[in-house]
Each structure stands twice: as structure tokens, then as C-alpha cells.
Amino acid sequence: MTPEGRPGADRHLLHRPRAAGQVLAEQLRAAGIGLEFLTGELQGSHDPSGVVFTVLAALSGMEREYIRDRTLEGHESARARGKTIGGATVTDENMLPMALHLRDQNLSLRDIAARLVITSGVKKGRHPSPATVLRMLRDHDQQSAI
């Protein structure tokens, strides 16, 4: 649990190297936090510095790497078959000049996105996200710098 009280936000800590996992286990023990399984063969409370916690942390890291590898293999296979990875294209040649004009007026990315409209495709009539506007402007700036 984080200082803000959000449960599970520290799950990424289990994927750190073993020494960090041991430090985490000691911090959990000092805070009086234990590992408890409500069902299954491991049902019951366990010490965070114990074998069960260590094994689960190691398995979690291994599973994460396995999922990552399989995802990358799937992307590579899709590209080899001519498939594109990612969502539908929402920008067009008319959107960039308008975004540049609005940026010159010192509008925020959110305001720029709200004024742009997607003109074709599945998302026709909707607005691009501020992140899309950011990428579009950043790519333009990088191309201009070359």
C-alpha cells in the first residue's frame, strides 16, 4: 500500500532484483505487513521474508518476462505477415498545420486536441487525444531540426 493509501500500487517492486526484494521484505516485516492467501494450497499467513514470498516474487518476474517475450514474438510475426501494430491512424495532412497554428497561439495540448477533428477512419468526427497531438508536434519538431 502506498502512502496515499492506494492498494497494490507497489506491485512493480516485486519485479526488482533479488537484493531489492529482500529489502522490500524487511520493510514489509518492519511495517507489520504479511502475505496471506485466502484460498488454495498455500492458504494462511506467511512471513514476507520467508520462502513463499521469495518464490512468488521470482515466479512473478519470470512470468512477466515470458509474457513480454511472447508479446514481442507476436508483434514480429504480425509484422512479417504485413500487419501493422497499434491503433488506427487518426492524423492527416491537414491536422498538422492547424495544430501548429493553435500551438503558436499558446494553447495547451488539451485545448488543441479539443479543436482538432479526425476526418476519416473509424474515429471520424472525434477528437485526437492530447498524447496524439503531442506526438504529432514532437515528430514535426524533430523533422524540422534535421
Give a written overview of the molecule.
The chain has 146 residues and is mainly alpha-helical. Helix content is 52%, strand content 4%. It has five helices and two strands. Strands 1-2 form a two-stranded antiparallel sheet. A hairpin with a 6-residue loop joins strand 1 and strand 2. Helix 1 packs across helix 2. It starts with 17 loop residues before the first helix and ends with a helix. 10% of the residues are buried. The N terminus is likely disordered.
Write a concise synopsis of the structure shown:
This protein has helices spanning about 20-30, 50-80, 95-105, 110-115, 130-145, and strands at about 35, 45. By secondary structure, the chain is mostly helical. The longest helix has 30 residues, at about 50-80.
Blueprint of the fold:
Elements: H1 18-30, E1 35-37, E2 44-46, H2 51-80, H3 95-104, H4 109-115, H5 130-145
Antiparallel strand pairs: 1-2
Helix pairs in contact: 1-2, 4-5
The major β-sheet equals:
2 strands, antiparallel
Structural class: mainly alpha
Instruction: Catalogue the unreliable spans.
Output: 1-16
**Helix proportion of residues, in percent?**
40-55%
- Net shape: elongated
The average pLDDT value, as a whole number, equals 80
Q: Any descriptors?
A:
146 residues, mainly alpha, two-stranded antiparallel ribbon, 5 helices, disordered N terminus
